[in-house]
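Dear support,

We are seeing what looks like truncated structure output for some complexes. This example has two components. We would appreciate it if you could run it in full and send us the complete token output so we can diff it against ours.
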Amino acid sequence: MEQASERPLVELRSVTKSFPGVVANDCVDLVLYRGEVLALLGENGAGKSTLMNILCGLYRQDSGEIYVRGHKAQIHSPKDSRRLGIGMVHQNFKLVDSMTVLENIILGIEEQKFVPDMKKVKAEVLDLSHKYNLKVNPEASIWQLSVGEQQRVEILKLLYRKADILILDEPTAVLTPQESHELAKVVHSLRAEGKSAIFITHKMEEVMKFSDRVMVLRKGAVVAQTVTEATSPAALAKMMVGREILFDLDKKPFAPGEPVLVLRGVSALDDRGLPALKDVDLTVRAGEVIGVAGVAGNGQRELAEAITGLRKVKSGEIRIDGKDITNKSPLTVIKAGTAHIPQDRSSVGAVGDMSVASNLAMKQYRRKPLSFGIFLLPRRIAQMARRLIETFKISTPGPETRVKFLSGGNIQKTILAREIGACKKLLVAVYPSRGLDVGATEAVRKQLIAQRDQGLGVLFVSEDIDELVQVADRIAVMFEGRIMAILDSTSCDEETIGLLMAGVKTP
Amino acid sequence: MSLVFEKRKNISKSALVVVPALSFIVSLILTGIVLAVFGANPFTTYAAMFHGAFGSLYGFGETLVKAIPLSLTGLGVALAFRLKFWNIGAEGQLTLGGVAAAGMALFWGKNIPPALLLPAAIAAGSLAGALLAGLPAILKTRLKVDETLVTLMLNYVAILFSEYLYYGPWRDPKGYGFPGSALFPEAAWLPRVFGRAHFGMYFAAALAILLFIILKRTRWGFELTIIGNSPKAARYQGIGVERNIVLAILLSGAISGMAGAFEVTAISHRLQQGLSLGYGFTAIIIAWMSQLNPLAVPFVAILMAGILVGGDQVQLMMGLPAAMGSVMQGLILFPLLAGSLFTEFRIRRVRKEPKFACVEGEK
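Here is the complete output from our reference environment:
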């Protein structure tokens, strides 16, 4: 890259922004050159999103200056930032579900005529989608699209507005591995066309895969900046967290006991009525972690739901601790000693409009000490909440704060604290570390292993092979609703797992 | 300097009281303008209204007479709304409750001891209200039929059914042809406390407290709160969502049905026209104004009843149009709905900032 001599496209100088009680950005300097991808790495709460929200006009910095194309810029609103060619893809997409892709793309463009020339728009959009590998049907309604396709629409929207500085806020958090792979291609073609991108993430592998340069934020301040080629995931992780990350977790020796979960010939349908689980046999013993590997959507979610009583099975038998719980109610399964960290944490795992204390009480409120007969004991609930907040290091203003105001990592910690507290025999964890930063991920993994060491059976669904190898004792690979193989995690290699995940059986 | 809307992290307790109070003042001002247009002095009119509704024992009694059914139906509606079950059928549930209580009082006197006739009539009324609410609840939980339409339509079914009865088979043969049933035996009269204000007010107050305790302090209330916020999360926690919705709606209907039973046994002592004066619909306003808090319902109900009674008085005394009371009720609702913005959000004055900032996200 010829950046040394070139003038930066965007430059932030000593940008500071504080919220009551926190300095979100502390004298941050940032430069972005034409045709480069800059990764902005940092844990949840490091100030990445705040910084980018300043750049796209949602916040205003307390002090410091912004220069775009060499000129001092006053960004008062998203409109100002759009005029400067800056566009952001937010974590939660800003699309209108019932409208088509094209309608969403032209929505809010002021220069548009009263009756837009849709043919022309369509031609332009198709042109862009071709040029940047952004495959999507322009006539489809948003609700018909997968998450990955919706993200492409967001990117197309920015490109259609002629943005050349694209900010992507944790774009892979919602994507399957294939979709992230596609996204990497898109990002590369953007760069090839001379566009620049700022890529917010907390995953080191993505920094390596997507970016040219990386800037690490910690507690609002820049702690390191480097060319991506000159660094390694381990070095990045250390800079990000400020200490060595244990990539190897301590585990007690593997000494499995009696089976706690036995599935025999289990088949089930998905929400659309298509077969999602096909004749699944699986045993989880006390004191072992069974990892479930597989590309999302190959039956993992249905597997967890069938076990926890949330989904009826068509045939087969499920036993927990010897008790037949096939097609029994979720409550029967809970009472058999099962805890479940669900895939969907914001609408299933937690109730956003209720307090942290209430959310923590949701599994144990039926029993002493949280209730007495039909009555709840609020003081005991508050006590328990304070204890769990402390033990699991949930960062919240207090037990009465509504959960929706916590960060994703802290919501997950809340769920984890509740479920682990209620777990007697079996823990079913579905993507428990998805979207969490390094520190929180480590905490989650440690907890899973701690449960195993205490003699519980753990069923652990993940897409991250490294994580599975590290945490699980055995790994079951799922493909199209079947278990392809169950491998020993100490002796298997990633390639075999990868092939099995793709449905290729090697003898 | 500019103003920013900020979402409140904890709904402030004081905002819950101050905002409705301010909304009420705004609505007084708006109504004042309307009154002025009609040539009435707003201050003397309000004074007359207040005096009419609360200034004498008779007036206050009449206010309570209306506040009792308003309070009960308000409680029923609030309970259903907490579950996001849009029961707008309190009017019908009240009416059918009145019909069932009347049936019991008129025709079962011979079969049961007189001391049990009144409790039996009230129980029958509650049961009828519960059944009328239970039907849409079962349709909703089993077949996903929209409850708003079903509860609304059932209002007319219940009202027309009661008309059929007092114009037809139940009409008093000695009633000189007036529509209405015969007078109930006195064993089925609910005693009055003063004026026409009757024992129902104790029931209304007790139920408000009981519902509050159920919702805030019991396991069942906790389950209902979870269901109301997120049925998916409730199911995942092992809570029987459908069963609990049906149970809660049966209770909601039973409370409205009880209001109907009180109306016939305490006020008219017969089934006749004018059993409900739209109490079940005003209950929706009351439930919202109380922010679905059962403890607030009786107070809001007394306020609304005061406006109705005071409005009637003003009509007679100052010669204002009959609709003035309803106009005022409507004008109360608008500032209140607008005011709810301020319980969820607060306005903060800041130095130069964009107009809307979201403070969620990273900190």
